[in-house]
Amino acid sequence: MLLGPRLLAALSLRLRLLHLRSLGQIVVGIADNSIVPLPGSMDVFTIWLAASRPRLWFYYAIMGTVGSLIGGYFTYLLARAGGKQALERRLRKKQAQRVYRQFDRWGAGAVAIPALLPPPFPIVPSLLAAGALQFPPRRFLGALALGRGIRFIVVAGLGAFYGSAIVGFFSQYYKPALLILIGLAVLASLAGLVEYSRRRNASG
């Protein structure tokens, strides 16, 4: 039995909306793990998406993880190009030394644990340190995927479980908040690109 034109149009619209929301998670993920982070932005966005579409909660957990991996890897590459000197110019000396000790003691756990913890615990110093210390890329991505994957499964699951209450709260404010969030994410991504290009040119 052939699908009617109305049903095809509805399916096409849903696919486009799904694509746009997934793209939004990628953009926010890049910003949330950049050198100009937006702490908690991906958590809020993923909760809202899972609450608005509870059946797709696991999909949004996966996309949140993917967005964080892309953003985290970009920050890792930035620090890898700059080395320890670039990291120590960005972090206080004591903070940099503390992160170094964490990598010496925990290895991949120095990435996975901060990736798992919610705000206000920062992830960016660990991402920068992993790159500056030339931590193996595969181990870095595996640790980041583990921590962020667990975190966003929990976050999206909570969004789906408390969906009606969350959607009711966001129904009045989500449009301006979402536009501001995406705008800040784009600006943070551009700032990261400029900084990465500058570091590469300086090291080249």
Structural class: mainly alpha
Radius of gyration, whole Å: 19 Å
Helix-strand string? HHHHHHHHH
- Largest sheet at a glance? none
Count of DSSP E strands?
A: 0
- How far apart the termini lie comes to 61 Å
Beta-sheet strand percentage?
A: under 5%
State the share of residues found in helices, binned by percent: over 70%
Total domain units: 1
Number of helices: 9
Query: For the residues shown, what is the average pLDDT?
Result: 76
Low-confidence stretches: 6-15
Globular, elongated, flat, extended or rod-shaped: what is the shape? globular
Short description:
The protein has 204 residues and is an all-alpha fold. The chain has one domain (41-199). Helices cover 82% and strands 0% of the residues.
In terms of topology, how is this protein built?
Elements: H1 5-32, H2 41-52, H3 57-90, H4 93-106, H5 109-116, H6 124-132, H7 137-161, H8 163-170, H9 174-203
